Structures are given as C-alpha cells and as structure tokens.
Amino acid sequence: MSTELVENEELVSVEVVVGSKAGLHARPAAAVVSLAGKLDPAVTLRKPEGTAVNAKSIVKVLSQNFCHGDLVVVEAKGDGAAESVRQMVELIAQELDHEAE
Amino acid sequence: MKYTGMGVGLGVAAGPVKRMAHTVPEPTGGPSTLPKDVEIERAKRALDAVAAELEHRAQRSEGAAAEVLSAQVMMVQDPDVWDEIEASIEEGKSAEWAAHSSFESMAGILKSLGGTQAERAVDLIDIGWRTVATLMGVPYGVIPVSDEPFVLVADDLSPADTAVLDLTQVAALVTSGGSPTAHTAILARARGLVAVVSASGVLDIPDDTIVIVDAATGTVDSEPSAEQVEQVKSQRTESADDAPASPGRTSDGTAIPLLANVGSVADAKEALAKGAEGVGLLRTEFLFLGASEQPSVETQATEYTEIVAALGGQKVTARTLDAGADKPLPFLNLGHEENPALGVRGIRTGIKDESLLKNQLEALVQTQNAGVGELWVMAPMIADAAEAEWFVKHARAAGLNKVGVMIEVPSCALVAEDVYKVVDFVSIGTNDLTQYTMAADRQNGAVAGYQDAWHPAVLRLIGMVGAAATKAKKPLSVCGEAASDPLLALVLVGLGVTSLSMTPNALRDVRSTLVRYSIDEVRELANLAVAAGTAAGAREAVRAGLPRPPR
Asked: Please, are residues B395 and B401 in contact by the beta-carbon 8 Å criterion?
C-alpha cells in the first residue's frame, strides 16, 4: 500500500494502490460503493490525472475502470474527512474478491 | 446435469431452452404533460419498486445470480443516475424518457470500456427497461419467439407476465423460484403445460440447450440422449376427449356442479366449451393489473357483463378486486410492505380505499341487472364474521342479491358458523388457506414443500367450514388449486363442499373421477385424509383407500 497524505485546509487526499486482483470491478466495486454509502463526509475517487467521481455511484466507480495495481486518489472534505478517506483507502488496498483468492 | 424441483402434473416434454425477453414500448422524448414534481415522484416510486423487486429476487437467489441482482439494486439506487433522471425531468421530459435515456447513457459509458464493464452495461439497460415498464404499468417479461415448441425458463412468472403470455409454442415451463401453487404452477395447470418449479440452478442452463422436463419426477435433464428426446417427443400425443360433458355428480347421483375459474371473456368461452356448469371464480383483477388509473364504473360494468353474457345464462360468481401488497396496482400507492402476504391485500385494500370497492360493487350491480345471467359476488381475504358482515352490508346496500365471502384465512374458517349467519354462500380459496395455515409464503420457493392443500391441518379447517355449510344449508364451493386435483376433489366433497371450481382443463378428469364414487365413499376417503399425519400421508391414505381405481 502506498499512501501519501496531502492535507490542505479543506481537502483530504490520499493515494492508494488497488489491491484486488480483479480490479475495482464487480464484487470489489460493490464493496467500495457499500462502504461509500456509510461514510460522512462522502468520498470521491479519481485517477491521478482524472476527474473525481462519487464513490457512492456504482456506475461511476465502474466507469473509472480501476485495475489491479492502479493508483486511486481518495478524497473528502469537511469534518471527519480524514476518517472517511482512511476507511476507504484501507478497503481499496485489500483483496476484495474473496473467491479469487 | 439433472436439476430437481417440484413437478406440476404428471407430464413430460422436451425442447430447447428459451428465456424471457422484454418488449416494452420505447418512451418518446416529447414534453411531459404532467407537473415536474409529479414526474419526479413517479420516477422515484418506480425506481423504489424496481429496487424492491430485484432485492427480493436477490434474496431468493444464490451465487452469481444473487450477485448480479445485488449489483443491479445498487445501480437502481445510484445517486448519479438519479441526478441525471432528475435533470431530464427538470428539462420537461417524462419520467419514462428520463429513466430510459439516463440508464442508456450510463450504459454507453460502460460499453465503451469493454470487458467486464461492458457486461454490466447490459444490467443497466435491463434496469432502464424495468423502470419504464413499471412507469407505464406494462409487464416487463415477454415470451421469446420461436418456430418450434420450447422450454420457457424463468426466475418466476408474475401474474402480469402470465396475463400476456402467448403460450402456443411453450412445451414446458421451468422456474428456479416459485412453488407448486404460485402463479407459474397455476398457469401451467390452466394451460395443461408440463412444469417444474422451484428448481434451483436452472437459470444457468444456456439458451437452446435441449432439455427433458419431467413433471412426474420433478426433474429437468440438460444432457439427455437423442433417443430419450425422441421418445419423449413421440409420447406427447394429447388424447383429446370430444365426448359431451355431463353435469358433475357422484355415482349415487349427488349433484356437485363443476365450475370454472376465469379471468377474461376468452377464458369464459373456453370454460363453456370444456363443459363448465358456470363460473365459480371470476377474477376481476384483469381490469386493474397494468391499468395506470382506476377503471371507470362504466368500463367495469361493460367488461363484467360481457363475461357473464359469454357464459350463456349460467351462474357466475365474481370476486371483488383481490389486489394490494401481494399484487400491486400502479394507481394504488400502498407503499412497500415487508410481508405482502400478511399485509393490505384482498378486502383490506377495499377497506382502505372504499371508493375502489364502492365503484366495483356499483359496476357489478349494473351487470347483475343487465339480465344476461345470474351473478353472485364475493369478497376475498375475509378475516372473521364481522368483516363478512361489513362486506355483506355494503354489497346489499349497493343492490346485489347474492353475497358471499371467500374463506382463505384460518381465523375465518374457525368461525365459519358465525360467517354463515350473515352470508348467502362461501367459497374456500385453498391456496391462501394453505399458505396461512402452514405459515409458508407461497411465493417463496424455499418453503414450497409446505404449500400442499393435502395437509390434514388444512383439510380439518375445510371440514369445519363444510360442517358449518351443512348446518346452515347454504352452498360451499372450493375455487383453489385443490379442486383441480381429482383425488383431492373427492376429499373436498367428502368434507361437505357442494361445488368445485377449477381451471377448465381440469374439468374432464375431476368429472370422470367423481362419478366413480358415492357420497358415502368420498366421506370415508375424507376421514382417511383428515386422520393422516402429513400431506403425503393423506395423499397415500386416500390412494390406498379407494374402493376401486380412479379410471
């Protein structure tokens, strides 16, 4: 897991490498969306050079085509942003496709 | 590979597997005629309904199927898709168009990525169509088209699906969900189709695989030999019986009118052709399911009168609207219920929305007074004598002459004597009576084994109603699936039932079985069944106790 904390006044932004062999598709994507639904403040995901998308949107998460080993930038703003981001980063770093193990 | 489920009937059939497909009309992009907030509310409600349905299916599925369905639920609830839908509606589009175009455009993004993402695009498109179907109040599932008889495979068929299916090319029905008395099975009995329901795993069988469906053993064989298939196909010669039908009776001449369950003019004509002596159950739902608003009194009266007229003067017993949580109506917003079978349904819908019942009674009075045939009217899902009295009062106030109730709830069977004091007749709905007596959801394949009207507990309840009917000297009919099982029909008559109403295709077998036994003999058979310990035991006891073979 390579994480790098870039904290400015508002935006908490952490980079994480996708740990699931199958990438954030199918089951792992569903796990990300499930967690995102519980996080307040909400988090966004993006590729390092890309536009941030709502992590609660399964369609948007799938549309990013995050593959195994890709860098994902997890971001959130406001009170508790660091905690939201931490939880999401921890999840994405894991192998989420348990049947694939 | 052999899949095992529960067979409906005793037939066997072979053919290629085909799945349900849809043909929902494509929404137009023209401006909406409704206020924006109304369209937004409609879209919200439709998405909630689609999510609830998929969630329900996901809970009943396993493995890959459950995963796909759960992912679909997430897609229905996707906040970004919702934002697009809302934006479209704000631009003046209809909810139908907004839902359709939003899911399509999202699917387009995934499609362009290829691979696994492209596969998910199919799911998004499916959801879009489901939502549009819900908004339009049309069924989503539609039968595939084929030049040769095929085996229709589905998760389950909803009443709305079955209402529109063209089954001329269906050799057999196979479902992974459902139960022997759920709609798929009812449909199969009604059309004389071979069916196996509640067969887990059958959705994995690829399209066009040749399978053998054997209802007698409840199996689906996806790897039959060519010889086996040929043998089954050559067996499938239907013995058409063109002998004119005589009225239903026992061997000693006790008249047991054999009636039909119908839901349309076409059904009524078929019933007459197959020798029905009247209609014991006219389902009035056909006018309501799929309607976007309540049908007018005039429309209802016209339709009911047409059916009564089609029966050529024979008696017709109409059941007031049996809808609600279990059979949702687009124009009745009853909300989502955790336990639809135990919720607002049957007469409870009519109690909650009195205008619905009042309009229907008014239409039925017009039909009664049209002079085309005799009309009796009954209410479904009555819980006790007080509720029966409430309905009778309303029906009489509207001007109806013959008023009765259905006994489908065990509480009502227990107080049948009191119920008979206020009604002219009773009809037992054995499917629901079994579901409620055994506390097993008849739509839930996992508890399908409980859904068997042969169970002595169910038979004893029917016996209580039978005794009350005899004491009151008033008619007692059975209009559930039980009446279409020839041996069970004998037991029912033995328990005091005075007429049997069934799917027209079952009339011939029930008639020919009934006429072989005397009223005393069927009473003895009923005693054997009631004394058994299980449904299977009751069936076995009656089979073994028959004084002579049924044919």
From this structure: no
**Residues B196, B158: Cα–Cα separation, whole Å:** 16
B68 → chain A, closest CA residue: A26
The last residue of one of the domains, among B136, B167, B193, is: B136
Say whether residue A60 is in contact with chain B using an 8 A CB cutoff: yes
Is residue B252 in a domain?
A: no
Q: Which residue in A54, A56, A65 is closest to B117 by CB distance?
A: A65
Instruction: State whether CATH 3.30.1340.10 applies to domain A5-100.
Output: yes
Q: What span, in angstroms and rounded, lies between the C-alpha atoms of B144 and B166?
A: 9
What CATH number does the domain containing B52 carry? 1.10.274.10
B123 near A CB under 8 A: no
A-chain residues near B110 (CB < 8 A): 59, 62-63
Tell the residue number behind the tokens 């948007």, with chain if given: A60
Look at strands A5-7 and A11-17 and give their pairing. antiparallel
Residue B523 is predicted with a pLDDT of: 98
Give the tens place of pLDDT for each residue, B350-391. 888 888 999 999 999 999 999 999 999 999 999 999 999 999
- Under DSSP, the state recorded for B315 is -
CB–CB contact A65 B80 (8 Å) = no
Q: Which residues of B touch A53 (CB under 8 A)?
A: 80
Q: Which tokens belong to B237?
A: 């010669």
Whether residue A30 and residue B109 make contact (CB cut-off 8 A), yes or no, is: no
Angle between helix B354-368 and B297-310 (nearest 10): 40
Note whether B98 and B89 are within 8 A (CB).
yes
ipTM: 0.86
Q: Which of B100, B412, B455, B479 is catalytic?
A: B479
